Amino acid sequence: MSERELSPTEALFNIMSTLHTLGLSAVTRYTTPSKLVATAELFDDNDNLVESGAGKGPDSLIGALAESIEHFSTFQPLTGAPIRYRSDKIATQKAVTEDGIFTSLPHTENLIECFRLTSLNNNEELFAPCVLLCPKTTQNIHKDSNSALRFLSRYSSNSGIAFGCTENEALLHGAHETIERHILSLFYMTVCGLGPAMELYTPSAALLQNSAEEPPRCLGVSEQTASDHYQGRAVSLFCSGFSQSGPWSSPSFTHWLRMLA
Same structural domain for residues 56 and 89? Predict the structure, then answer.
């Protein structure tokens, strides 16, 4: 399938509706004359910058907005009541027999909050501790917490949130996130001498020279004037007249996939 199932117009509408539901507004800009690279910055109701993202390609603006939503969502606190599962049951799941973090959990009856992850065909499931996937939850762990939570908090990380305007888009982007992180892990292992050597691409001298001459773009959050901010906000306010309970808040419009590395 292509990267996007919806037309650019439909995708942009759904993304802007999602931002409205989240109570956010966006400032977007193209960073190249070709409009093949764009950045997006998200602001809350108090005009505080909360997140940013970048996109590339013919639909770079859509990509930048979608990435900024992914970044914003990654470290948000949990919503809803997670499943509570026994530590010994988590450690002895068939799917984690080769995973040292899971198998090192104490074989006790202590309950741990978990996500229920499933395979794409829903034939297999895995109960993964929330603290492993949501670093935000580690703030509630203290010296009196059970030993399993204290152990898991050392490895708390997040492999990202995949955003899509349809379920298939979210799944595809989630697969891309997993592949990217797997390759990055292999690279780190190679650098640290923990894995086989990798044949790495070496850019040409001309490309390196050209990159050195270009001003850095899309690295971090760019500075901007107040007038730029309010001018850019007009892009996102076209949906401000909609109720937050409208159809664009339905799961059929926006799908999320939390990835486990």
Answer: no
Based on the fold, state whether residues 148 and 253 are members of the same structural domain.
Answer: yes
224: helix, strand or coil = coil
Strands (E), 110-172: 111-118, 125-129, 161-164
pTM of the model: 0.65
Query: Count of CB atoms within 10 A of residue 155's CB?
Result: 12
CA-to-CA distance for 92 and 230, rounded, in angstroms? 54
Domain boundary among the residues 32, 53, 75 is at 75
Tens of pLDDT, residue by residue over 169-219, are: 988 888 888 888 888 888 888 888 888 888 877 888 888 777 766 655 444
Domain shared by 58 and 93, yes or no: no
Alpha-carbon gap, residue 65 to 99, rounded angstroms: 35
Contact status, residue 158 vs residue 150, Cβ threshold 8 Å: no
114-129 pLDDT, tens per residue? 989 888 888 899 999 9
How many structural domains comprise the chain? Answer: 2
The residue to which tokens 């996937």 are assigned: 133
Task: Write b or e for each residue in 231-243: b if 16 or more Cβ atoms lie within 10 A of its Cβ, otherwise e.
Answer: ebbebbeeeeeee
Region of residue 73 (phi > 0: left; psi between -120 and 50: alpha; otherwise: beta): alpha
Q: How far is CA 48 from the centre of its chain?
A: 20
Q: Which domain holds residue 94?
A: 84-161+234-260
Judgement on whether residues 147 and 244 belong to the same structural domain of the protein: yes
93 and 55 in one domain?
A: no
